Amino acid sequence: MAARSVVALVSVAEVVAGDLADHLERRGHDVRQARQPWEAESLLSAGGIDVVVVGDDVTQADGRELLKRYGGEGGSDFILICRPRDLVDKVLALELGAADVVESPLNVRELAARIGGLLMRRGRNTQELIVLENATVDLRSAMVMHRSGAEDQLSPGQVALLRLFLASPRKVLTRDDIIAAAPAENADAFDRSIDSRIVRLRRKLDTETITTIRGAGYRFDPPTPRTD
Asked: Is the CA virtual torsion 167, 169, 172, 175 positive or negative?
């Protein structure tokens, strides 16, 4: 099993840090926090940090110093949070090798996506994303991220069922196929329970891609990619 990626939050505002840590941990990342730059020195010098997020509670000069010491080739990727209109600070950070600079106030979900992009480039992304009409599913963390911003957790049985459909696009799967490949999570696995499982999965994914084929079974039709 691959080691979990590690994200360090340095002097990130408490409310943001809590939400961001929760967001990242539910997606399979380890999160470590340092409230002050001197605490970050100890954390970063130990190594093993993939991405460092430096909040705007620390001065830009201190943030750039951490970047110079622990970023760059072979080091951690840095994301610096700066206040709006701090163009000079933003340019300096990028010139020193910051992977990204974002302005506060920020959207936690967007910041988590930026972190995920950096981890992907490092070969450390633990996500396995499926894009549907109204939601994106991370199969590895069993998370459904709706376009509205809401999130749902899939059960192990629902993940198995979705994986089965994804492995057989546009193919009609019979109830026997489903029972054999993605059994129910309890003893209620008789034939008519399949209908209820499909209904609950459709509802949680907010999707119409799983179609009932009367008298035959069910078919998954991958959605047409959005152009907006």
From this structure: positive
